[in-house]
């Protein structure tokens, strides 16, 4: 359809150039033009040129144009190259190289386009493409085989098939004020079951909110929120005492169930989300998100560094507090112990006030604290 749109747009502009009239306000004329462009596209798969001719296309004006394969390829070259980009990304995601590919099977009507075939053959270093399968029927055959597998039909023709469906985007949980913690990575085979451990982030925390996201960006707010649920009535305790097993389970029908269980108290809650196979983001949304992940890769690396710097700072402050509670208070002079306790208290208050900040802010704060606290701990 994208190829057709390029040709339609070109002819709309050509008609306007010739006759100073814009046919876009006439849906019937545009529909006739699109049908003619689709036919021309198919013809150019086995012809070097074809003629588009329509009587009374718009306001009684006839339209005729001789479209060459060369012009068609010029109009769509960036789309052709994008197709090859998807092939390259597919191999990269599968951690495979070109040499490990046995056959390149053409699927879908657009693979008949000679330029697409040539780009594919060049990409695979001159490898002959497999054209023995009808490109339109291949899609229907694949859907039928998948349906037979899902319904459990025992057919000898599909019994030995290995058939995998995968998640097109990563699934995870929002932690630490907008950080996306991935539980199910992109391209995980379905059905799947993945678990990850989380913990309370504050003292005396009696509930924890699990916001579920899909996407490839390190910031949760840049991804798509699927749902959320709360695990409540957690007995008050110090930070990190309560740990939670968060489980993402996707069945063969694409139903996602997410559960969270407090390992200490045994309290549990869960939520179920339908249609994870197609994902809640549509095809266009998935394409957009993957493109954004590539476009903002450098920016996202900075966010990852910032999240890591804050985690190191938080862990340092609370680890020092725990050490203080266990041993340091007994080994330090009273005045020094009281001073260190006050500094830890102020550091925790600072963390609460600075949930969001820059990389430099978190790194400088950690340097400041380590310069004061490390000498004390080293001497002990």
From TrEMBL:
InterPro entries, A to Z: ATPase_NBD, Heat_shock_70_CS, HSP70_C_sf, HSP70_peptide-bd_sf, Hsp_70_fam
The keyword Oxidoreductase is annotated on this UniProt entry: no
Keyword DNA-binding among UniProt keywords: no
Lineage top rank: taxon: Eukaryota
Residue ranges that the Swiss-Prot or TrEMBL entry lists as coiled coil: 279-306
A single GO BP: response to stress
GO molecular function: ATP binding; ATP-dependent protein folding chaperone
Gene3D superfamilies for this protein: 1.20.1270.10, 3.30.420.40, Actin, Chain A, domain 4, Substrate Binding Domain Of DNAk, Chain A, domain 1
Alphabetic keyword roster: ATP-binding, Coiled coil, Nucleotide-binding, Stress response
Homology family: Belongs to the heat shock protein 70 family.
Protein name: Heat shock cognate 70 kDa protein 2-like
Species the sequence originates in: Dorcoceras hygrometricum
């Amino acid at each position: 359809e994208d190829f057709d749109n390029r040709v339609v747009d070109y002819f709309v502009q050509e008609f306007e150039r010739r006759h100073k009239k814009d046919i876009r306000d006439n849906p019937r004329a545009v529909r006739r033009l699109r049908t003619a462009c689709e036919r021309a596209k198919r013809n150019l798969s086995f012809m070097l040129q074809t003629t588009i001719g329509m009587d009374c296309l718009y306001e009684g004006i006839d339209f005729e144009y001789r479209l060459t394969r060369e012009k068609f390829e010029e109009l769509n070259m960036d789309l052709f190259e994008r197709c090859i980009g998807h092939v390259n990304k597919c191999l990269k995601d599968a951690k495979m190289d070109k040499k490990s590919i046995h056959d390149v099977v053409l699927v879908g009507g657009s693979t008949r386009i000679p330029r697409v075939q040539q780009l594919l053959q060049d990409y695979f270093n001159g490898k002959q493409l497999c054209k023995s399968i009808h490109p339109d029927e291949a899609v229907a055959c694949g859907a039928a085989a998948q349906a037979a597998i899902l319904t459990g039909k025992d057919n000898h023709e599909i019994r030995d098939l290995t058939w995998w469906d995968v998640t097109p985007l990563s699934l995870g949980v929002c932690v630490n004020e907008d950080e996306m913690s991935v539980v199910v990575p992109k391209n995980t085979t379905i059905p799947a079951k993945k678990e990850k451990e989380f913990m309370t982030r504050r003292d005396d925390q009696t509930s924890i909110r699990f916001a579920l996201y899909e996407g490839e960006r390190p910031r949760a707010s840049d991804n798509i929120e699927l749902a959320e649920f709360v695990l409540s009535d957690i007995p008050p305790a110090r930070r990190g005492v309560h740990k939670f097993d968060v489980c993402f389970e996707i069945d063969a029908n694409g139903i996602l169930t997410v559960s969270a269980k407090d390992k200490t108290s045994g309290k549990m809650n869960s939520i179920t989300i339908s249609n994870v196979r197609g994902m809640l983001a549509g095809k266009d949304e998935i394409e957009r998100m993957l493109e954004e992940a590539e476009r903002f890769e450098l920016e996202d690396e900075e966010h990852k560094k910032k999240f890591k710097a804050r985690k190191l700072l938080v862990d340092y402050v609370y680890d020092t507090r725990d050490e203080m509670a266990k041993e340091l208070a007994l080994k330090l002079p009273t005045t020094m112990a009281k001073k260190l306790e006050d500094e830890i208290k102020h550091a925790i208050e600072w963390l609460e006030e600075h949930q969001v900040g820059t990389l430099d802010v978190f790194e400088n704060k950690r340097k400041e604290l380590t310069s004061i606290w490390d000498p004390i701990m080293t001497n002990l």
